[in-house]
Amino acid sequence: MTSTQKDQHGATSQRSQEADKPHRRKGEKTYSCDECGKDFTQAGSLKTHQLIHSGVKPYSCDLCGKSFTQAGHLKKHQLIHSGVKPYSCDLCGKSFTEAGHLKKHQLIHSGVKPYSCDLCGKSFTQAGHLKKHQLIHSGVKPYSCNVCGKSFTQVGHLKKHQLIHSGVKPYSCKLCGKSFTEAGGLKTHQLIHSGFKPYSCELCGKSFTRAGNLKRHQLIHSGFKPYSCELCGKSFTQAQTLRKHQLIHSGVKSYSCELCGKAFALNSDLQRHLVTHSGIKAYSCDFCGKSFSNKHYRNIHLRIHTGNDVYCCDQCGKPFTTDSQLQQHMFSHTEERPYKCDLCEKTFKAPHQLKKHQQIHTRK
């Protein structure tokens, strides 16, 4: 056999071997991770992914010590410390360190949410967000805290939770001294001091710094309280509020002040208390200049100067001694009656009016 014939034979043999391999269409994900089942189109991508399960993170940040499985991830992370955010959103001005993050953010403004949950109907801008959401319905929480046993659906949520036990709160508010475990928590908190509340309730006019807070508030108007305490029967609109309430019955006060020893059932109560020791009094009286560590105490003090005329209605000028009284009064300025009795179909402007009416049906 000549050399030319050998070359032709070799080429034919190679083509034959290629034909024997299973045919894979472009974009098909044929490489699966044995640990978590995630699929990939390339073997190299699978190998890179498997580093996550190995726990090996050889690339560390010199500034904060955070470690990564890949050098590329470290480089991206280091942009955070540089402070450089070259990619800005034309609609809201928010800046990002990566172009990909900007693109994902822009989906929020588009209003398009093509990925919907079959179980509850909630929609999302990205398929990944839908997948994470669906874990809530599955009830599976594979990531548990070694300290308190609390479980989570995502490893990221566990990591954020573990910061609570570390006690490290490197992000502090310059105005009131309150500290946070994450920069995002500090940014959210600073909106309180800015006084800017762009999200308003259409039913009562109450305003909020965040859209999420408005949504939670709107549950109050719905009158729907599916979470009830088994010990006292008190009902709540949110499961989280019920859990906090149940701590009262438990008698457990696991958050103690290191300065005076006073104990609290909730960490939020402890944080408010700690401000009294800091000496910072961020809330001042406009009349006499006296300062207070707590906004609630400042409002009580204001009544000395105003004769209880602290909360005034923007519509008619009527004064009230408490914010809750003002909020109830605001219902009188609307013609909407969104609260309907299930038994007689009668409608009301406010939830407290509906509750009072329902007592008629429950009387013996």
UniProtKB/TrEMBL annotation:
- SMART domains, from UniProt? ZnF_C2H2 (SM00355)
Gene Ontology terms, cellular component aspect? chromatin; PcG protein complex; transcription regulator complex
Q: Which residues form the C2H2-type domain?
A: 31-58, 59-86, 87-114, 115-142, 143-170, 171-198, 199-226, 227-254, 255-282, 283-310, 311-338, 339-364
InterPro entries in the record, alphabetically?
Answer: Znf_C2H2_sf, Znf_C2H2_type
Q: Which UniProt keywords apply?
A: Metal-binding, Nucleus, Repeat, Zinc, Zinc-finger
Q: Where in the cell is it found?
A: Nucleus
Provide a Gene Ontology MF annotation, just one: RNA polymerase II cis-regulatory region sequence-specific DNA binding
| Polar residues biased stretches | 1-16
Q: What is its main location?
A: nucleus
Give the top-rank taxon of the lineage listed in the UniProt record for this protein: Eukaryota
- Where in this protein does the record put region Disordered? 1-31
The protein in question is named C2H2-type domain-containing protein
Q: Which organism is it from?
A: Oreochromis aureus (Israeli tilapia)
